[in-house]
Each structure stands twice: as structure tokens, then as C-alpha cells.
């Protein structure tokens, strides 16, 4: 099989990623699990040829540096490609991107998430580990804006994943490394490009986070992603990027600009294959803004738990609901609760792990 056939089979089997490595069979990730795509191991020559084909004119850069990021269309499928050298041989990690931007209701998100698209300014964070569906949620939110409001949307991505078809909105999509040098540089330029809505693909470094906060503070609606497991962790992650003498100022900025945090993870569905979304939602209210300002993030979980009337929901409650509905198994719920998501009121045992569904509070 060649690379196009690998991609076609991976797409046909609903794989999210394809992995090619020397002396191993081609592998792909289906429903979160790595599986063999075919049994025959790849040779060093085959891996070299795949790397040369995918890198094209940039193969010299791959040889010199040892890794290379690309966005390509292969067999009609948009792909995010990372080529890298390991133990002297070439490997490829290929993320298959969806060409269909789903409606928000298709994703299993709480109804309150639809509100995020109607905010006229502020910061909205979508968080979760790699492969948790952050990009898909963001694409659905931006497309909702695209079809309902007359605004200018500007995205900064690495690489560009979903391609939007402008409807009511003007949409500019900039790719880091090709259209701009970095997220920070692109974001600074964005403030001079008359956007209403800005998507920042990754908020990791001080300059990017500071400029995103400034943009949200000056009347833009900013969507960003952070690799954290909960709303409270997201706030701590942003604050901790800054030196100690600036952290109180950043907490104050966050308390004024942060509108909402959506933390999500994808879990194996008990029946029919595929995965199901579990999520934590935190919309800020006066109590949560005060906790952010005072640096009392450990108390945010309890505040989320007591503000369900505005749509807030803890991750542990989302997992319980999925278990009670039969969407996930008890083992899956227990594993997710132990995976680092903070619980209101203490450890995972405080929500009744191992009990029957009827023992969970409503």
C-alpha cells in the first residue's frame, strides 16, 4: 500500500491518526486505541520514500533539523503531518482532519455552550488534552457565528485545520509558520486588522497570553485553547506563565475578561463504537470572578457546583450523567475521574465510585 491507500483505509475505518515507523506495521488510532492498519512491517526504505513524498521541497529541512510540520491534502483528506527522525530512521504522525464542520448540537455539548457564540467581547477558553475535540468544538462555535452574525473572524492556527466557507462573516485564516511567524506575532498584528472575533489556536507563552487578554479587554471576542483538565487548572496555568510580581495583575485582568471555560474529554462509548463527550462548563459570575481575583482557584470547583442555574456543570457530574444513561461503563467513569480532573468536595470517592447509578445525587 502507498500513503494514499493508507489514508483512504484510515478514513474508511474512522481513524483519527495514522502512524508510520520503521520495522513496525503501519498503525492507526481508532476510538482512541492504537491498532495495526496492516500486518506487514515497514522497511527503512519505505519510510524514507514516504518522508520524501510528504516533505517534497522541504525534505532538506527535515534532514537538517530532524522534524517537519506540514498541512497537506492526501487522497482528498486534509491532514496535519509531522515527519521526524528517530534512531536514524524516518517516522510520520498524520492527523486526519474532518472536512465537515459539525453543528454544535451534533457534538453532545450542553445547550449553554451555544451562548458562547453570542458574546460580543471577552475570553472563552476551550481546554482538554490532545485529541479531546477542542478544534472541532471551536470550529462549530465559529461556524455558528459565521451563519448568524455579520462580523470579521480572524484565526491563528498551527496548522489551519477546518476550512470555513464565509457566509455572513468575513473570515481570514492565518497559519503559523506560513502566514505569520508565531501566535504572538500574528495576534499583535490582528489588533490592527479590525477583527471582531479572534481564534488563538494555542495559548502557551507569556506574549501570546498577554496579547490575548489585551484583545479581550479592548472589545474583541477571543477564543483560545489550553492543555488543561479543568476550569480551575486553566486559570492557574495562565497565571503561572507570568512572573510572581505580575500575577496579581493577571488575575485582575482574567477576572474582568474571562467569560467561560469549557473543559472536555472523549471517552469510549459502551455500545456501537465511537466516543462520547464529557465536559465541564464554567461561566463566570460575581462569585467566580472574585475567586479568580483573590487567587482562590481551589474553591472554584465548589462554586461551579452551586451555580448550575446558569448552566455550569462539573466534570464529575457530566461523567455520572453519561454513566447513568448507559453511554459509558463504570470502569470508564472511574478511570476518567482518576485522570486528574479535580472534584468538588474532595477525592473521586466522594462522588460514590463503585456504587450503583441510583446512589448518585441528581
Topology:
Elements: H1 3-12, E1 15-20, E2 27-30, E3 33-36, H2 44-55, H3 59-65, E4 67-74, E5 77-86, E6 89-96, E7 122-127, H4 134-148, E8 152-157, E9 170-175, H5 183-190, E10 197-200, H6 206-217, E11 221-226, H7 231-240, H8 244-257, E12 258-268, E13 275-283, H9 286-294, H10 300-305, H11 315-324, H12 330-337
Parallel strand pairs: 7-11, 7-12, 8-9, 8-10, 10-11
Antiparallel strand pairs: 1-2, 1-6, 2-3, 4-5, 5-6, 12-13
Helix pairs in contact: 5-6, 6-8, 7-8, 8-9, 11-12
Task: Explain this structure.
The protein is of the alpha/beta class. The chain folds into two domains: 3-96, Beta-Lactamase (2-Layer Sandwich), CATH 3.30.450.90; 104-359, P-loop containing nucleotide triphosphate hydrolases (Rossmann fold, 3-Layer(aba) Sandwich), CATH 3.40.50. It has helices at 3-12, 44-55, 59-65, 134-148, 183-190, 206-217, 231-240, 244-257, 286-294, 300-305, 315-324, 330-337; strands at residues 15-20, 27-30, 33-36, 67-74, 77-86, 89-96, 122-127, 152-157, 170-175, 197-200, 221-226, 258-268, 275-283. The protein has a seven-stranded mixed beta sheet with strand order 9-8-10-11-7-12-13, with helices on both faces. Strands 3-2-1-6-5-4 form a six-stranded antiparallel beta sheet, with helices on one face. Helix 5 packs parallel to helix 6 and helix 7 packs across helix 8. The chain is globular. The model is unreliable at 341-362 (pLDDT under 50).
Amino acid at each position: 500500500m502507498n500513503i494514499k491507500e493508507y489514508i483512504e483505509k484510515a478514513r474508511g475505518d474512522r481513524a483519527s491518526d495514522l502512524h508510520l515507523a520503521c520495522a513496525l506495521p503501519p498503525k492507526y488510532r481508532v476510538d482512541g486505541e492504537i491498532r495495526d492498519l496492516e500486518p506487514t512491517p515497514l522497511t527503512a526504505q519505505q519510510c524514507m520514500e514516504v518522508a520524501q513524498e510528504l516533505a517534497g521541497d522541504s525534505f532538506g529541512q527535515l534532514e537538517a533539523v530532524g522534524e517537519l510540520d506540514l498541512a497537506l491534502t492526501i487522497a482528498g483528506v486534509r491532514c496535519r503531518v509531522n515527519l521526524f527522525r528517530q534512531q536514524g530512521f524516518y517516522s510520520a504522525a498524520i492527523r486526519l482532519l474532518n472536512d465537515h464542520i459539525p453543528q454544535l448540537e451534533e457534538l453532545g455539548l450542553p445547550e449553554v455552550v451555544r451562548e458562547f457564540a453570542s458574546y460580543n467581547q471577552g475570553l472563552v477558553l476551550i481546554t482538554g488534552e490532545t485529541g479531546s475535540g477542542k478544534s472541532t468544538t471551536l470550529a462549530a462555535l465559529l461556524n455558528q457565528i459565521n451563519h448568524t452574525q455579520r462580523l470579521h473572524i480572524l484565526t491563528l492556527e498551527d496548522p489551519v485545520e477546518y476550512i470555513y466557507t464565509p457566509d455572513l462573516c468575513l473570515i481570514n485564516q492565518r497559519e503559523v509558520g506560513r502566514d505569520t511567524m508565531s501566535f504572538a506575532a500574528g495576534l499583535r498584528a490582528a489588533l490592527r486588522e479590525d477583527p471582531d472575533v479572534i481564534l488563538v489556536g494555542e495559548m502557551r507563552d507569556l506574549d501570546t497570553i498577554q496579547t490575548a487578554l489585551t484583545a479581550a479587554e479592548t472589545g474583541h471576542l477571543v477564543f483560545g485553547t489550553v492543555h488543561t483538565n479543568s476550569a480551575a487548572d486553566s486559570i492557574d496555568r495562565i497565571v503561572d506563565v507570568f512572573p510572581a510580581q505580575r500575577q496579581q495583575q493577571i488575575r485582575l485582568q482574567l477576572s474582568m475578561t474571562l467569560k467561560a471555560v469549557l473543559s472536555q474529554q472523549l471517552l469510549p462509548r459502551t455500545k456501537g463504537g465511537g466516543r462520547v463527550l464529557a465536559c465541564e462548563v464554567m461561566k463566570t459570575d460575581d462569585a467566580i470572578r472574585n475567586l479568580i481575583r483573590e487567587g482562590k482557584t481551589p474553591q472554584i470547583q465548589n462554586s461551579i457546583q452551586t451555580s448550575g442555574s446558569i448552566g455550569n456543570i462539573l466534570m464529575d457530574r457530566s461523567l455520572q450523567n453519561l454513566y447513568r444513561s448507559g453511554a459509558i461503563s463504570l470502569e470508564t467513569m472511574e478511570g476518567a475521574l482518576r485522570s486528574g480532573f479535580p472534584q468538588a468536595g474532595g477525592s473521586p470517592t466522594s462522588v460514590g465510585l463503585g456504587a450503583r447509578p441510583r446512589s448518585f445525587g441528581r
